[in-house]
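User: For my dataset I need records formatted as: sequence, then structure tokens, nothing else. Please produce one.
Assistant:
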Amino acid sequence: MKLKKYNSNPIMKPNPMNLWEAKYVFNPGVIYDGEIFHMVYRAQGPDMVSRFGYAVSKDGIKFNRLSEPVFEPENMNEIYGVEDARITYIDSTFHVTYTAFAPGKISIGLATTTNFINWKREGVLLENFEKDAVIFPEKINGKYAMIYSIEPDMYISYSKDKLKWGKPQKIASPRNGKWDNIAIGIGGIPIKTKEGWLIAYHGVEDGIKAVYRIGLMLLDLKNPSKLLKRSEEPILEPEMSWEIAGGVPNIVFSTAMIEVGDKFYMYYGGADSSIGVATIDRQEIYDWIKVK
């Protein structure tokens, strides 16, 4: 099973007219509200500080973006940048988890918004080199749930208030001899199906240069720390020139997989430089879920 890459990828490139996004744009969080695709993407200029831009689309392919960043570093936890937004709609508000980067420190931040223009920083959720965080779109057994990485593994924690998180429970680890043998981390927001929570994740394989690919996992509905199924082979990998050569080579890195109609759309950064999209028929995903 493989995703089909859009034949005119990348759908978004750096904009030399805007200094803050003149060098790289990548790793977008995307959510669909039933009419509009909202994208919050990571961008870097010559200073290499990561900021978030905002773009919208009617068809999920052609995006119009603002000329100024909508979210940028404001405190010492973020002095080197805000990275890799993932968007969850919960409690009538968009919740954006992101990685805050500072010298010798990596932490998970949470910001909320209703329009992607005005933002409220809710605080630091975890600050011991955790990253790649997403909040589930609904409570699990009466509590909020969040998946994140403590390299090289993937974990889940629970919270009553979305700010204080409990003891991490391991979901999965890298697999020796496979395409995800160094490190793993979640992609976009978990998608609820009858059989379980569907998530995309990135896996890193060692070599002369590390390679980032993307696969799927299925987690138990009532206990998402229980892994039910996992891709034996990647569903997306770096193949095109813009995915192989760039800011960091040999990377496809997704922070958004969304279900729209009869398709799944996956948005990803290629070589930490530009943004692409790939799709797959909904039925093909659900066939994979059901095969024992």
